[in-house]
Amino acid sequence: MSQTEHIHWFRSAAPYINTFRGKTFVLAIGGDLLRSDGFDHLIHDIALCHHLGIRLVLVHGCREQIDDRLQAAGIESRFHRNMRISEKSAMPVILQAIHEARSCIESRLSMGLPNTPMSGADISVIGGNFVIGMPLGVIDGVDMQYSGKPRSIDCDRLRELLPRHIPLLSPLGYSRSGELFNLPAEELAAQVAIQLGAEKLIYFHREYIHRDDSDQFSTAECLQAIASGEAEGGLASLLGQAVDAVQQGVERVHIIDSSLDGGLLQELFTREGAGMMVTNRFYEGLRRASIDDIGGILELIQPLERSGALIPRSREQLELEIEHFLVIEKDGMIVGCIACIPDMESRMGEIACLAVHPDYRKGGFGEQLLAAAEEQARKAGLRHLYILTTRTSHWFLERGFEPASLDFLPEGRQRSYNEERKSIIMTKTLD
Ligand SMILES: CC(C)(COP(=O)(O)OP(=O)(O)OC[C@H]1O[C@@H](n2cnc3c(N)ncnc32)[C@H](O)[C@@H]1OP(=O)(O)O)[C@@H](O)C(=O)NCCC(=O)NCCS
After folding, report:
1. Could you tell me if residue 143 is left (phi over 0), alpha (psi between -120 and 50 degrees) or otherwise beta?
2. Among residues 244, 259, 278, which one ends one of the domains?
3. Which residues line ligand 1 (CB under 6 A)?
4. Cα(312) to centroid(ligand 1), Å
C-alpha cells in the first residue's frame, strides 16, 4: 500500500473509530478458531479494538476441544439436535476442555504481544460467576443431563467492568443449587448481547451466505434461508441465534468469515465488510417505491410543498422518477420518502424529496432513508451525492455533506438551478 493509500485508508476508518468508541460488542469465538493459524492475529485485533475504546465481551466455545478430550478418555460424544448431551460422567473431562480453551485465550491476551503492532498493550481479562444456568431438561424424550441454557446474566457487574476490562465468559452456567451446566456458546453470546444491550454481536464462522448485491440480511431473509435449506447445520443455528438477538434489540449481528485474516477489522472499519450482517434496521418498512405508492407519497409531500420546504412535483414527474424513490411504510401509510436521481455521466446523484411525516419525526427515519439512498447510490456506481436545500442544510451538514458551488453540479442541473429560490448546494463524496 502506498503512503497516500495508507493515509486515505486511515481517514476512511476514522468515522467508524469515532462511532464505535464506548460501544459494546460481544464476540463469540468458537473452539475451531482457537486452533487456527489466524488466532494470534485475531487476538491482536481484539487488543486494538479494546484500545480504540470499544467495550468487548468475549464468549468462547470449545466443541472441538471437548470432542478431542472425550475421545482420548474413551467417552463417546453424543448430540441431540446439534446440541451436546453432557453426561455426568463426562463433566470432569468437559470442564478440563473448557479450562484449556479459556487458558489459551487468557494467555494470548496476557503475553504483552511482543513484535506486534500492539506491543506493550496491557489487557486485563476478567472471569467470574456472571452466568446462572439451568438444565435444558428432556428434549424429544432425550435427557440432556448437564447441558444447560443461560438463566440469568449479571449484566450490572459486567457493565461496571467493561470500560477497563475484557470479560471472558466460558460456556458454563452455575446453578443456584451449586451445579455446573455446559452451555452452548452461541446461545450464551446471543443472550449476553441481548441482556447487555450490546450494539453488535459478532460470530466467526467458516460458512456464511454470500450475495453479490448486499451483505445485509433481514431476520425474515434469515428465517427463509433456514427454512429453504440455504443455511444448514452450524450456520442455520447461528442464524437462528442472530434472528433472536436482532428481534430482541441487538442492532446488528455479524457472521464474519473465520478463515479471513483481519476479518474483524475489515468488517468493523471498512465499507466492504467480511461476511454477512443480520439487521432489521434498514428493513422495517423501508423499501423501494412502486407505482402504487404515488398516492401515498403525494399525500406526504404536498403539505411540505405548500409550505415551501419541498419543490412541487407533479404526479407525472413522480411516475417518471418512481424507480428512484425509497419509502417507509407504517400501518399501510407512507410516512417517509427520499429519491436519489442518478446522472450516470457525471456519476452524481441528486438527493431529492426527502420527507418524514410530522408524527414520525425525530425517530431516525430521515437518517435511515438517507443511509439507504446512499447505499443504493454506491451500488449504482455513483461517486458523489448532492442536495439543493433551503432550510435543511444543517441536517445534511451533520450527516457528512459539505457546501459546494453551482459549478460542482452536472451541467444540466446547473442550467435548471432556480436563482430565485437561492437553494444551498451541498455535496457528499461516497467512499
Ligand atoms: C428533515 C427531515 C426529513 C428529518 O426527518 P427525521 O426523521 O425527523 O430525521 P432524524 O430523526 O433522522 O433526525 C432528527 C434530527 O434532525 C433535526 N432536524 C430536523 N430538521 C432539521 C433542520 N431543518 N435543520 C437541522 N436539523 C434538523 C431534529 O431536530 C433532530 O435532531 P435532535 O434529535 O437532535 O433534535 C424532516 O424533518 C422533514 O421531513 N422535514 C421537512 C421536509 C424537508 O425539509 N426535507 C428536506 C428537503 S431538502
Report:
1. beta
2. 278
3. 304, 309-310, 354-356, 361-367, 387, 389, 391-392, 394-395
4. 19
Kindly indicate the confidence band of residue 213, based on its pLDDT and cuts at 50, 70 and 90. low
Question: 278, 298, 313 — which closes off a domain?
Answer: 278
- The fraction of the chain above a pLDDT of 70, given in percent, is 96
**pLDDT digits 0-9 by tens, 338-361:** 999 999 999 999 999 999 999 889
Best of 335, 356, 368, 426 for a ligand 1 pocket test (most atoms within 8 Å of beta carbon): 356
Other CB atoms within 10 A of residue 144 CB: 22
**What atom in ligand 1 is closest to the CA of residue 365?**
7
Report how far residue 166's alpha carbon sits from residue 24's, in angstroms, rounded to the nearest whole number.
11
- What is the DSSP pairing of strand 325-330 with strand 384-389? unpaired
71 and 189 in a single domain? The answer is yes
pLDDT in tens, 42-81: 998 999 999 999 999 999 999 999 999 999 999 998 999 8
Instruction: Please state the rounded mean pLDDT for residues 77-96.
Output: 92
Give the integer Cα–Cα distance in Å for 217 and 429. 26
Banded pLDDT at 157 (limits 50, 70, 90): very high
Q: Which of 334, 362, 374, 386 gets mutated to test ligand 1 (max ligand atoms within 8 A of its CB)? A: 362
Q: Which three cell numbers stand for residue 354?
A: 426527502
With both helix axes pointing from N to C terminus, report the angle between 91-110 and 39-51 in degrees, rounded to the nearest 10.
Answer: 60
Q: 256 with 319, same domain? A: no
Q: What is the pTM of this model?
A: 0.70
Test site for ligand 1: of 327, 392, 422, most ligand atoms within 8 A of the Cβ: 392
Q: Are residues 274 and 310 in the same domain?
A: no
